[in-house]
Amino acid sequence: MWAVSQNFWFFVIAAIVNGFQKVPHTAFYCLLVEDTAPKERTYVFTLLQLISVVGGLFAPIGGLLVYHFSLVPGVRIMFVLACIMMTIQFIGRHYATRETDIGYRKMKEAKSMSIKEGMSDYLSVLKVMLRSPLLLIIFAVYILFNFQTTVKTTYVSIFMVEYLQLGSGLISVFPAFSSIIMLMFMRWIMPRIAESQVNRIMVWGFIISVLSNVILVVAPKGDLILLSVSTIVAAIGTMMTYPYLETAVANAIDDENRAKIFALLQVLILIVISPSGVIGGWAYGIDPRIPFLLVAGAFAISIPLMMVYTKKQHQLDSSAMKNIHF
Questions:
Q1: Is the pTM of this model over 0.85?
Q2: Dihedral sign computed on CA atoms, order 152, 250, 263, 308
Q3: Cα–Cα distance between 243 and 202 in angstroms, integer?
Q4: C-beta separation of 86 from 209 below 8 A
Q5: For 5-27, how does the pLDDT look when each residue is reduced to its tens digit (9 = 90+)?
Q6: What digits encode the pLDDT tens for the residues 237-255?
Q7: For the purposes of burial, counting CB atoms within 10 Å of the CB of 305, is it exposed (0-12), middle (13-18) or buried (19 or more)?
Q8: Burial 242-271 (b: 16+ CB within 10 A, else e)
């Protein structure tokens, strides 16, 4: 639908259909972590990030398509390729994976549950979430992370072309450049990070991410050096936050209620990020740099939240250890 769009309403319908991907996204998230030991989940999300990073190395192909066919036909071709590759992925995943043990048990439970009982169950799970300060804090960090991702992904290419005055074909080089930096970080830095340092690493990752967006905002038009520095710093910040934040969220959720809690989390994310496009567009109209200041602000708010989360987690762990010794 994206590939054949002819006017605004085509894009609206395509966006609505695309929104349904939140359903399989929740299921895939549960598939990733439910049969995985908590201490191994960092490796799962790191591998997932690795796959994404390797995919980023092919971004210059998009630039070549745009350069050869011009912007609109080039983007249409990219959407067709995305459709083919995603379909192959869906079929491959369906036949290559099996349902989790918890998934089988939950399906049996759901068969004997009415819609009213199901909604009541969701309400009970929501009450459990609201009574857990630790869960609410890490969810707040996760929602802010998704907010900044949406804003930056939406406006960074437009910003590079319109404000920094880079060629539309040239901007495809930066995702590949970012992927190379991420691969280097994964190869030489991540193996040296101890599990006990993860929360501290995330805090520093948020600080670095603030810095990357500030550099982007102050970069003069056409300055490839500062833009490259911003890309490098952003890539490092992403690798210091994304896999560990996903793991922290996964470990904070009880396996028995994972699907329901994660579904509710997705609803909260949508409530927060749905206006982000409008807010970002309004801010971009005032000054193209403002959306990236909002992104930096989201990271800045995450820093004290992560510090509070770490403190509360240590208190909880210390209390648990005392009870064990007692």
A1: yes
A2: negative
A3: 10
A4: no
A5: 999 999 999 999 998 998 898 89
A6: 999 999 999 999 999 998 8
A7: middle
A8: bbbbbbbbbebbeeebbbbbbbbbbeebee
